[in-house]
Structure formats: C-alpha cells, structure tokens
Amino acid sequence: MQKTDFLVIGSGIAGLTYALKMANRFPERKVLVLTKATADETNTKYAQGGIAVVNDLENDSYAKHIEDTLIAGDGICNEKVVEIVVKEGPERVEEIIEWGAQFDKEEDGDYKRGKEGGHSEFRILHHKDVTGKEMERALLDAVARQKNIEFVNHCFVIDIITQHHMGYLITKSTPDIECYGVYVLNLETNRIEKILAKITLLASGGNGQVYRTTTNPSIATGDGVAMVYRAKGRIENMEFIQFHPTALYEPGVRGQAFLITEAVRGDGGILRNKKGEAFMERYDPRKDLAPRDIVARAIDSEMKKSGIEHVWLDCRHFTKEKFTEHFPNIYEKCMSIGIDITKDMIPVAPAAHYSCGGIKTDEWGRSSINNLYAAGECASTGLHGANRLASNSLLEAMVFAHRCFLDATEKIKLIELNEAVPDWNAEGTSEPREMILITQSLKELQQVMSDYVGIVRNDIRLQRAMRRLDLLWVETEDLYQSSSLSPQLLELRNMISVGYLIVKGASFRKESRGLHFNTDYPEKSVLVQNIVL
Questions:
Q1: CATH 2.40.128.50 for the 2-239+356-414 domain, yes or no
Q2: Does the annotation mark 230 as catalytic?
Q3: Backbone angles phi, psi at 59, to 5 degrees
Q4: CATH number attached to the domain at 436-508
Q5: Which among 92, 292, 461, 493 is annotated as catalytic?
C-alpha cells in the first residue's frame, strides 16, 4: 500500500502541470504520478500543430478567439468556460515558456504564429511540427528538479476507490460519492496494490484506440472515462469524436497513423480528390481551412464517391526549404516511404483524433465525485462543445490543470486518508488460457466502432453497434470475473465501456451537430443540450 497527498494519473501536459504546481506549493507533501507506460508516452507528445493563444493584442483579440471557439463548438460550448480558457491562456503559456519550452521565433524575436482551420487570425505558437513533444520535454525537465514528485511507471490503474469498495451500494443518484484513491496493477511486480490519496487528478488522456485507425498512441484507451463511469460519476457528450481530416494513409497500417498537422493546410496545402480537383470549395467557403468536422466529412464524401480509401494533400507548390523548416518531422516520414513532397502529393484520410466529451467537470475541474478532479482530454470542461477548435487542447489542459491546483490547494487541509479501504480481492481467478479471446474481441470492437460509429452515422448502424457491444461486454465481464488481470484485459474492458458511451450518446442525440452527423437527422435540433450519462 502507498499513501500520498496528491495522486496524479497520467503524465501529459495536464498531469505534469498540476504535479509541478502542487510540488512547488507544498514542498513538504508528496505528489505521486502514475503512468501505465513511460512518463513521456502521452497524447501530448504527438501533438504536432501547436497551441492557440492570443498574445499579440495588436493583431488579434480575446473576442475573436472566443468567437472562433464558439463557432467550431456549434452551440454546445459553455461560454463562461470558453472565456476563462481564452483569457487565462496567455499567462499559462508564459509559465511554460519560463519552465523552458521553446516556440519558433521570427528574426526580430517575435513568435512565429500559424493559422489553422476555424481560426480567424494567426495565433498558433509552435515548435517546428513537434510542439507537444517540446512542451512535454520542458515539463519533464522541470518536474525532475522537484524532490517531492515521485513517478511510478508501468502502473495500470484498475479502478477508482469509492464507498462501493467499502460495501456500500452506490448509484448515479447517490449523493457525495467520494474518491479515496485507486487500485493499480503494478506491471513490474505483477501485483495488485492500493494507493490511498487525499486528492486525485485524472489526466489519463483520450480514447482513440477504440477505433481501427487513430492518430493516438496505443495507450489512449479511455481508461479514465471508463473508471469514472463504473464509479457512477457523470460523463457527457461522448458522441463528439473528432476525426482529424489528414492522417497519412499507408495501406495495411492499423492502429496509430502518422498525423499530417492542420498547420500544413494553414501554410497553403490543398486537398485534392482522385481527379485532382481542389474539392473543399464545394463544401465550405473557408475551403481547406474550414473546421475539422466539415473537412473530415468532405473527405469522407469524396472517398465514397470515388471508391478509394484516401484523398491527397498537395504541397508541391511549397519550396523544400519552407516545408522542412516548419515540418521537418513530416518531411522525414514522407521521404521514408517514398513520398517527395516537392513532386508527389501526400495520401491522407481521416482518423480518430480527439474526444470532445468525457468526465463532466465544473469550471474548477471538479468531477461529480468528491476529491476527484479531471483535466486534459479525459475531461469534458465545456470548452470544445460539439467540435474542438484546432490547437485549443494544449491550452485547455494547462488552464484547467492550474484551476484544479487552485481549488485543491484549499481543499487539502480538510481531507484525511481513509485507512479502512480493503485490499483488492483476487480470489477465484486464474490465468486466461487463450489470449485470442482478448485480442479478437479488441479487433471486433474497433471494427464495429469504425464501420458503424464513424464520421457519418445513422440509427440502424448505431443499433447494430449497440447489439454487438452488448455481446462483447458480457463476454469480457465473464473473463474479467474469472481471470487474473492483465493490461490487455483491462484496456479491452475500458474500451468496450467507452464504445458503449459513444454509441449511447450518439443514439440519444436526434440531430446532426458538430462532429455528430446522423443521416436520419441531418438538421440541427432547436433544443441545444448536453448528453449526460
């Protein structure tokens, strides 16, 4: 058993920002950070494009950034939260610069600013095409200088500990559900341990691996959302799954796809169909810089018309020097598979990218479970609404990590550890005899979600998806109850729960809005609402 004052689950930008602030504020208290892989393997690491922030008030304004965010969010954003993130964002960006993050600059010393889909101004700060990796590096370096932050790598969180584990019946309507810590599977010792914490922050990232092709790494399996749902916490707007329009298409590649950042189109890249036509002008007056939901649906439509599995991104009009200066990582990847961007167009197709819904929080990052906060992609703060504006996610993660820190700073004095939490009971379980039972179920899940709950949906597809998910859930729960636990089984269980929540939210939303497009309800409803599960 371990005990800690502050427990952080996840080591992306949200988790590390919060941990660093807590360690500075309370040098005498312990901050424990858990990650199921290594500290640097997070969704943050794969964020290419940059971070949207208004720090040039001569040419930009908070009002413009707020308006752009609200337009992209298509009526579902929490306007108060949008204002909070946009106005508090510049201070958080200055903070990470002080911690060592470096963003590209012009010769005169001012920052280079990019423009991406849905933005009315040039406001995206970036570090080449590896912005998230640079920010993660700076945070890990700063965290390493703190003596009271402890990392436990290769540690899989199984469940949030609540009154349920003390023998009480908990339902969605139970008042004052409390988080006492977590049960974890230590992958180095292969033992199940309990960690007691006064305050827990879930910064566990996204869920792109629910789909067959995603820009997310293999760790993005929706663990935090699934755990909170099992603990009877509130989840909202899971139907809004953002598909990035331009992932590199490589025949036969499943799982994580290489991302071609939206900044390429911001710099003048043009999407073309099988005939070589620049087709986006037929779908939106903003052409290639329309918001992601519109571009992804347009590409999906062109692919279905032509019967091929991708379109092309034309960058042949770029000079090699211009492209390699801003996008060296993309240039190197394309060359490695025989694509010379000065001569060849880049084959691209949409891939699952970002979950706009998640664990419902208030404006301080508090979940519906006491002493449990959520920040980053696993949270639904109200910023993104029905569609995330490009490059708003890193900003949101830092702003809400700071707000969780401020709120928890006041709470910590009033909370005691619950020493009565029992150990994990693994009696009656045995080693699974066939791993194929897990791997095949995972393939089925990803196939169902990709074919029935993708960019375009309808009621029949959603009903079929739900029936198949129900069967997968029964089979997996039987395996979970009778088998000793493994990361593969735990991830499968979590992903089935996340798939269910996406399908359930999509089934409840009888309209088309933002990232959710249902051909049976092609219009927007007059009633604008959040789907809370």
A1: no
A2: no
A3: -115, -5
A4: 1.20.58.100
A5: 292
